[in-house]
Every structure is written in C-alpha cells, then in structure tokens.
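Intended use. Records such as the Bromo domain-containing protein entry shown here are meant for training and evaluating sequence-to-structure methods. They are not intended to support clinical decisions.
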Amino acid sequence: MPSQSSPPVALPGFPKKPMHHLTAADLPRALERYRRLLDKLLQHEDGWVFAKPVDTHSLKLRDYLSIIAEPMDLGTVSRRLELCRYPNLLCFAKDVRRTFSNAMTYNNKGDDVYESAAKLSRIFESGWVSILAALPSPPPVTVHRARLKDELPWLPVDLQGKAVVIMKDIGGWIQEVDGRVEVDFDKADKATLDKLEWLLALAIIRKCRPLDSPSASPFGHGVIPGLSEWERGHVREG
C-alpha cells in the first residue's frame, strides 16, 4: 500500500562538489569495486526484491507511476554498470539510492519491502564509505590539464577526432595552425577536462575488452556523457 506519510529523509550523500576524482587509469579498478558492492546487495537474502523493475501490472499497483516518478532497480543498475553507462561515481550511487528510496516512499514503514529497502540501503552506505576512502583526491586543475595535454596525443586517431569535437566549441582555446590543431589547455574548464578524461578511459577499456564486446564503450551505445544535443549527433563510438 502507498505510504500516506512524507517520503523518508534522504540518506547521507555526496557534497555538491565531489571530493574524489577518477582518472582514466583509475576507472577499471573503480568499476570492479562498484560491481562487488552491487553483487553484495543482489546476493543478500532480500536482494531479489529489488533485482527487477517493479511489475506494476501483475502486482496491480495502478498508482505506482503516479507516486514514483523515476523507477529504478538493481538489475538495471547492474546492466548500466556492465555497459559502463555511468560517467562518474555520483551517477552509480544515485541509481542505487533511488532504488531503495522509491521502495521506502511507496511502502509504509514496517512493511516488508520498506524494511528490506532500509536494510540494504544501510549495507550500501557502509560499503560506499569504503569505496570513497579508497579513491584518490582530485588533482589540482593545473595538474589535470598538464596530464591530459601529455596523454591526448597518444589516443587512437578516431578518438583524437572526438576530442577535437568536444573542444571545438570552447572559444579561443583550439585553433588550426599550418594544418595542425593547437590547443590552449589553460582555457579548459573542469567539465571539458572530464569529457576528455573519458576518452582516455575509453582507450584503456578498449585494451581490456574486445572491441565487439557490448560493454566495450564506457559511454553506452557510444555516447559520451555530458555532451550537448549537437555533440551527441556527431560523436559516436566506432
């Protein structure tokens, strides 16, 4: 039955400005940590409750979608993780938390589903603290810029082209001189640096996984996270 009380108070989350940073080299190890924590939730005796989307038709939950605006389940999180759909740790944690907060919003406190969600949420938050503790602190922007400046020229040619597309709309810091593209990295903002970081991550994942693997791209169907509508139409994997 839907809860008549207000939604539960949100569990502790991230600060508005993330205090941790994943470089391309950190990504494979971080994804493995995410996977282990997610598997722990799915293998819990109550994990099956959240392993699939809520079947509103079979359960006759006619009001579910009017109460829950963004359904989520751990099975969907697992598939997104396998396809490397999460551009950062915030997005992964947000989907896991949404799975449990939805259950605690729709069901009354004391109901089996509510209590199972609360229990698994506590397990997740405890494990998440350990993951955060293992992450490196973000480098100074100047260091980040310098490293990308050194590493981007070594990208495969197709990914270098995608890097140019990402950078081209940032006025004044990319130009063509004598047929060569020159970049003024001092003008790169953090959002753009993060997109370029994901190109480096893609290059690393390509080395780790066959190119015909459905999970070969960290962008999910080849779409780089955070791009504009125009960019999504022009930057594709493969």
